[in-house]
TrEMBL record:
Organism field: Sphingomonas xinjiangensis
Xref: Gene3D superfamilies: Glycosyl hydrolase domain, family 43 (2.115.10.20)
InterPro entries listed in its UniProt record: Glyco_hydro_43, Glyco_hydro_beta-prop_sf, Glycosyl_Hydrlase_43_Enz
Family, similarity comment: Belongs to the glycosyl hydrolase 43 family.
GO biological process terms, semicolon-separated: xylan catabolic process
Site (Important for catalytic activity, responsible for pKa modulation of the active site Glu and correct orientation of both the proton donor and substrate) location in chain: D152
Name of the molecule in the record: Beta-xylosidase
Molecular function GO terms recorded: hydrolase activity, hydrolyzing O-glycosyl compounds
Keyword Hydrolase attributed: yes
Keywords (A to Z) from UniProt: Carbohydrate metabolism, Glycosidase, Hydrolase, Polysaccharide degradation, Signal, Xylan degradation
Length: 342
């Protein structure tokens, strides 16, 4: 880093910084990075991609991950440590397969790992596991979180200490099968197929004090256009697909997400964790590979985007996580990141 850090006070690392937009590790394949700073160290909670031999389909059956490994580093650009298995599907009593995108949180001496997996009936649920160490091993609760469904959990803790889980995803994430409040196995493999109706929404639920259960019935995370109208199901460039990640900057809540089949990262802003959120734009163009899923985290006072692509393998299901700076304009909008411009 000494060779690449700027001395002029510019918070943006130089364009030739070797760690920027490069795979953070070549030891294992990783995706969906949820990054946190705990006790001054950076911890990344990714999916752990494996070669499963399962053919690709629109439900993401090829993403047949079985466990989680945590990555950590003492600073952006520092040496990345790949920690041992933090949680294995065989140790989760309610889960059968597909350990997809996780997140983590810390409260009162305990680290919480939140993760989606399919139950024995093939329905995605969200579980929680705990540890005294940020890298695990984590012990799973015997049952999934009551009232949880779909995937891609993110736990956001507001400045007042209250934590909320954002979750959900369409297509393989099954949100379209919950459109009427309970699981409908005939609810389709993609979306509602009602392009002129409001799109399916991510969900939000406040967590109770135990951090292990919802304190309320999940609500819709509404995304509105500039005219205050809901984004429609047919608007694939702007509608929510998966990968919720909310952060707060000043008094503004940024709800960020993946547009899935149009392969972009998008954001919308609001004044409460519940929204509604007004669509503001995209902030990352399509990367190599089908999926895009990220986190936005402040490290040492600077904002970073953690994301993945398929640079190392060229295969959609063998991904590698990366990090790059995230830059805000004076009006709070986010500058577009082009993954192919270094
Ligand atoms: O990694 C499996 C799934 O692919 C994630 O849950 C989605 O967000 C997508 O990245």
């Amino acid at each position: 880093l000494a060779q690449t850090a700027r001395q002029d006070g510019d918070p943006t690392p130089p364009a030739n910084a070797r760690y920027l937009s490069q795979p953070l590790t070549s030891e294992i394949f990783t995706a969906d990075p949820s990054a946190h700073v705990f006790n001054g160290r950076i911890y990344i909670y990714p999916s752990h991609d494996i070669e499963s031999g399962v053919p690709d389909d629109d439900l993401g059956t090829q993403y047949a991950m079985r466990d989680y490994r945590v990555l950590s580093m003492d600073r952006i650009g520092g040496k990345v440590t790949v920690h041992p298995v933090a949680l294995d599907v065989k140790d989760v009593p309610w889960a059968s397969k597909q350990m997809w995108a996780p997140d983590a949180a810390y409260k009162n001496g305990t680290y919480y790992l939140y993760f989606p997996a399919r139950d024995p009936q093939g329905v995605f649920r969200i579980g929680v596991a705990t540890s005294k160490s940020p890298t695990g091993p984590f012990k799973a609760e015997p049952e999934a979180i009551r009232g949880s469904f779909s995937m891609d959990p993110q736990v956001f803790t507001d400045s007042d200490g209250q934590s909320y889980m954002y979750f959900g995803g369409i297509w393989g994430g099954q949100l379209q099968r919950w459109a009427n409040g309970s699981y409908d196995p005939n609810g389709g493999d993609t979306d509602l197929k009602q392009d002129d109706k409001p799109a399916l929404s991510a969900k939000i639920a406040r967590l109770d004090g135990s951090m292990k259960q919802f304190a309320e019935t999940p609500r819709d995370v509404q995304i509105l256009d500039q005219a205050g109208k809901p984004i429609l199901g047919g608007d694939h460039a702007r509608r929510f697909f998966e990968g919720s990640w909310t952060f707060k900057r000043g008094d503004t809540y940024y709800f960020t997400y993946s547009t899935g089949d149009t392969h972009m990262l998008a954001y919308a802003t609001g004044t409460t964790p519940y929204g509604p959120f007004t669509f503001r734009g995209h902030f990352m163009k399509p990367v190599q590979g089908w999926t895009t899923h990220h986190s936005v985290t402040q490290v040492g006072g600077k904002w970073y985007l953690f994301y993945h692509d398929t640079q190392r393998s060229g295969k959609n299901y063998l991904r590698n996580v990366k990090v790059t700076p995230l830059t805000f304009n004076a009006d709070g909008t986010i500058q577009m990141i082009d993954p192919f411009v270094r």
